[in-house]
Batch of 2 targets.
Target 1
Amino acid sequence: MSSKGKAPLLDASKVNADLIKLTYGALVAQIVKDYERPEDVNKQLDKLGYNIGVRLVEDFIAHHNIPRCLDFRQTAERIQQAFRFYLGMQPSVGNWSPAGNEFSLTWEQTNPIGDFVEFPDHLRPLQYSRVLCGAIRGGCEMVQIDVTINIAREFLLADSATELRVKFNKRLEDALPVGED
Amino acid sequence: MALCIGVMGSDNQPLLIKISPSIQNPIDYHYMLYSALDIVEEKSQISQKTAGLNISGAEHRDLYLGLLYPSSDEVKIYAYCTNTKVKMILIVDATNTALKETDIRNTVKRLHLAYSNMIMNPFYEVGSPIGAKSFHNFVESIIAQ
């Protein structure tokens, strides 16, 4: 087991990080079995993350009493804060594009949701961290921000860090729910 | 340091067998590994009996089984059996006097740790042959040490 897994659970309401990683790993392995093609699996993971994101953002805002973001930099800060709150592993925000519409979330030397994961060769196109992208996309969409996220670097594929590139597309001005005029 | 390392699953199925590239007759080492399994079984049964009637039967026994038997002049065989009945067998050169018992003990302990890390990989199916490159590299590094 990892060194982190050895500490006893002092706070009963918190779940051990290893449990999350193992659960997510088992889930991914099952989806791989069901869909076979890595591209389809990525799509499923993204959808999964999206569904987590749209719910989590509500909880996040309710708990933290957060005002509206005035610019994209504030949004980045909030996303960072949300990762600290829910995953306990804070990414660094940086690598801003000159126009300020694109930034990177980076976890150096780690992947927040997977230790010990080694891909068999036929699963190299699998994007293990896709669920995080989906969650950010879902969360932002609920607060009328349309973003695109790419995985720039993946620690599990022998990169030095896990890096998600978040790009601002547009504000969703008139995104009214279906059926409301 | 080792000539051969074998990792066997709970049903004695081979999970990984690595033999030093300097060996001329690898098939002999396969024989040695499989015959060692019988002794491992015997040894772990004895230690279960002495451990009394506690539920697991294996609670107090040392996972490290030590030197299996005073074997030939050429090799020494050491074994380690986890509580999940995964066996790790180490065959070393008997003429290498620099090798201490504590080194062997530490090595198999590290091997066990590496195994438990490897098993955390969600794409590995428990009980199937080990394909993970990191584990292969680790075992090779022990052999080459």
Target 2
Amino acid sequence: MSNFIQVIFSSLEIGSIYALASIGIILIYQTSKMTNFAQGAIGMYSAYMATVFMRGTGISATLATIVGMAFGLVLGFAIDLLIMRRAKNASPVTLQIITLGIVLFLTGLAPLTFGAVPLAFPRFIENKSIEILGASILYNGILNIFIGFIVVALLFFALQRTKWGLAVRVTAANPTAAKVMGVPTKKVTMGTWAIAASLGALSALMLAPNTVVDVGMMEGVQLSALIACVLGGFQTFFGPVLGAYILAIVRNLFGFYISSTWGTALTYSVILIFIIFKPNGLIGKKKIKKV
Amino acid sequence: MKDNPIFRNDMILKIEDLSISFGGIKAVDAVSFEVNEKEIYGLIGPNGAGKTTIFNIITQFYKPDNGKVYFKDKDLKWKNLIDYKTHDVVKTGLIRTFQNLELIQDLSLLDNLLVGSHTFYKSTALEQALRMPRAVKEERKFRNKAMEIMKLLNISDKAYELVYGQPYGILKKVELGRTLMSEPRMIILDEPAAGLNERETAELADILKHIRTDYDTTIFLVEHDMGLVMDICDRICAISFGEKLAEGTPAEIQNNSFVQEAYLGSEEGELAE
Amino acid sequence: MEKKLKSRFNLLENVYINYILIGILFLIAIPLNQAGIIGGSVLITLGSVILYSVVGIGMNILLGYAGLITLGGAGFMGLAAYLSAYFTRDLNMPFLFSLIFSVGIPIIIGIGIGLISLRLGGYYLAIATLGIGEVLKQVFIEYDVFTGGFSGKSAGYINLFGLQFDRIGTYALYAVILIFALIIGHNIVNSATGRAFMTMRSSEAAAQAMGIRMLKYKVLAFVIATIYSTIGGIMYMHLIKFSFPTTWGLGMSLNFLSIVVIGGMKAIAGPVVGALFVIAFPDLVLKNIPIIGTSPGVAYIFNGVLIVVVLLFYNRGLIKIFTDAKVLIKKLIGGK
């Protein structure tokens, strides 16, 4: 039983990390109609920035994370301003490749600017744990779960109740109509990229204590976030979040009870096959194409 | 046919009780009409009347909620097109055009036409990759055919030029040429006069009449431009708000009070043209 | 009209000569090597350029013409490499037999994956192949009986019909394979199949109206790319003669993307230029630049930047430099 509790808590923790990354992806997908493959790489680079900054100034992990998120914000702005704006008329395939180009660029730049040695990033709360039903759960883990829930809740509140959120939803539904109605779509896209990048940074720094800060740290998260979006459906903002948590739970269950080496591969395969039967994901709506 | 509708010998298309709703709004409501062989038939209606929707249903880009689309195919057998997948429709002998042409910018005019004969190619990808004799012969045959059609349409001098950057009038002809390559029994055109000036529209009218005779094809126009429709159509069906108003010859339609009422609201004196 | 068609065929023959020329250019490296002007490692680098070009040609057909992204190309390439090593080394199969299985097995898997993934929207194939690539890499690491795991797998040079190839012979053979790869790629793209790919990419609506079955042609394009990948993988195995599981990861799949995009997506020979840039340039030039040259992934910076630059501004890719040069030379000579 204690093992099961352990698995559930760690699933919720990693699910939060996936959820934050997948929200970034779905925000960009909805407003710019493209799949962002660079979500992980942007997070990675921001995490490096935060870690190096922390080492240089000696601030706490929490403050460093805020710095990292701020950096992510700026990076997101920059990418939209310098690259995405000029790619307005490109096909979705081209846009995807551009994000892959960004991945390459950041992957090459990181060792050049930060050195090739992997770095360590500490937990927000070290060494404290609590016993729940016989399982030893770290405070940090619970904190991460909370961060995940709170950020997701904040974002949904913002999407549903604020002016910005409305602007995002309108741009997502119909960019042309949005422009006609006076919605500042350019600012919306830029803001979305900034927020998505920032979320990428946060998820990277939440992940960092469990692994190391190195070039490939977010590769797994990137893939999982994408698959979470596929599972949950690209049509809604909430679907990918649901997909993220389900993905994390299934993967950990498979990993623990079936095979630790093949858990991930098995989960991906199951989901990719599930999609054949439900092509629009768990919360999917079919789109009618106008000809 | 379970319901055994009556098919007269000279019919080629029979639309029966077509209905479709989008999000609770009925876009097309129990529309029925018939098109005869070798006719030039027109479907007219103000913007939003449901013409394009009917068009997309006939060509199986949409499936209707109710109704039948009976078509007499190349073997002269009656088929319900609703049973067909979109990409199988062309094999029955029905080919469509597009409002935005949907041509391939990176290919030449000739290559764009060749896409039209896609379903006739028998050689496999492997044969084409290795340029086996059958593939080479086929390619040559269809190239010749395409050049013939381009001559008829007066665009053969541009055969090897890319579609990218060509004037609109030329592009329209390329699309028309592409439809002819599929050896259609009926060509269904989506607002073919859109974007053409008076001279070009007159030329289009001429071409369509020639196609009807030279290629033994029925022409079905969905159109907004009254000039073209009144000029060349043998019979017309007028719709408004998804419902059929009237069906008949141009003169009959012009004099129909329902039609006048429906159209007088949109543009004054349109029918008088 | 007969005359116009004849000159059209002459034009085709002309293009074939271009491809043969490319092969000959690569072959020139052999006498240069024999004369001691370029070293053996340069030959290996150029050999790598050739085999990456072959894979790139297939990917170009898939991406540049059919408009589909795959991020699992490296996985299939690796699978073929390991299979070829296993069949020739461990099972001592004659090379031709091994070839049939080393190409056949990945193709069957590719068809299966294609049939599943390609039913859905464009983004799905990229994500699915990303996942497949990761799964394959895991397989390479785990099944060490077959792949040697982290210690790697080795193979020898090709032995065909009793003729034992050595490094030079392999290189020459590969140059010839490249010529054929180019010619066949050219034929595919200029046939009804190629036009179907391009129609599918430009306009799904037009493709459906013209009777092109989307799923069939998507899978076909994917299979063609897989075939080229597997051949490239086998070429890799019998030139480099060693394979590690970490080679076949996302990095390599992204390299292929770079090769196709940077070289030029609308030209069959584009990937050759792309491979020269992505493979040869880092090995022969970048590595020797002080300070930056030693940083791992320096090449990635260039690739990443160039991908974005090419896509935004120079749509035809680097190969445009060659076509522009040809036009210029023709003008200078007086033109045909």
